[in-house]
Amino acid sequence: MIVVADNLHVLNPVVADAMRRLDPEPLRELAIRCQCAGAQWIDVNPGYLSRRNEDRMAFMVETVQDAVPGMRLVLDSPSPRVLANGLAACRETPILNALSLEKEKLEEILPLAVEHHTSLVVLLMDERSYTPPIMDEKLALAVELRERALAAGLPHENLIFDPVIPNLSWPEAFGQISEIVRVVRLLASGAVFGEPARLMVGLSNLRSGLRSRYPVSLDSACLGLLSGAGLDHVLCDVLDPNLMETVGAIKQMTR
Q1: 49: pLDDT strictly greater than 90
Q2: Are 202 and 162 in contact (CB under 8 A)?
Q3: I need a surface site. Which of 5, 74, 78, 141 has the fewest CB within 10 A?
Q4: Do 121 and 98 meet the contact criterion of CB atoms below 8 Å apart?
Q5: Residue 65: is its pLDDT beyond 90?
Q6: What is the pLDDT of residue 53?
């Protein structure tokens, strides 16, 4: 299972302040800490940027590359222009995050992935940015998004499907997690496409805004279920020692 750090996100006050001041040092320190904590990839997420600040993605990419040379980067933005800025700054081929059925993403992010031969995270979300709670509907989105990607020239092996973990404040969140485990199992086994699919989840979304209410053990339990179902990438807070202890145990048990 590949561990992807989600700590370089503009919602992190350290990142937000460094971007505001264009100060690379806090980002360098954070990237090194993520690598030391066990991150294999780092997700670079500058958040929503105005047109005049779209160069902040390149600033983040260049800073992280200098701090942890050779680390695989995931460029994370809903804006095709921001992703293009990040791609231009990358020394090695990154992963793009993310595609959905939204018109702009199909017309602008998918061609970027094809042109640069990148892997592409595929969110199981429709044209309204809605992720259905039911397994069958999620699988239908996976099939349609894969067909769009293949038709555009992006091969199956470049797709990483993300079934979108619910926040625990969502209605029937635990039931939705159960459905996602089933989605991961079917996609990873090859039962849907006739060949195994790569899977990733953004685990931090589970308790986002609710960390004082719910314990980290819920993250660990969810990760264990998903790993057993075939999950092979997890986007998470690598600086949480309790969570990384779970990741380490899973790696030992599944190697």
Answers
A1: no
A2: yes
A3: 78
A4: yes
A5: yes
A6: 85
Burial string for 47-80 (b: 16+ CB within 10 Å, else e) reads bebeeeebebbbbbbbbbbebbeebbbbbbbbbb
Q: Are 235 and 4 in contact (CB under 8 A)?
A: yes
The helix (run of H) or strand (run of E) holding residue 236 is strand 233-236
Q: What average pLDDT does this structure show over 82-97?
A: 96
pLDDT at 51 over 90: no
Distance, in Å, from the CA atom of 99 to the CA atom of 162, rounded to the nearest integer, reads: 10
* Residue 206 pLDDT class (50, 70, 90 cuts): very high
Helix (H) or strand (E) holding 7: strand 2-9
Residue 94 has pLDDT above 90, yes or no: yes
DSSP state string for 93-145: --EEEEE-S-HHIIIIIHHHHHHHT-EEEEE---TTS---SSHHHHHHHHHHH
Domain with CATH 3.20.20.20 in the chain: 96-255
Q: Which superfamily does 96-255 belong to?
A: Dihydropteroate synthase-like (3.20.20.20)
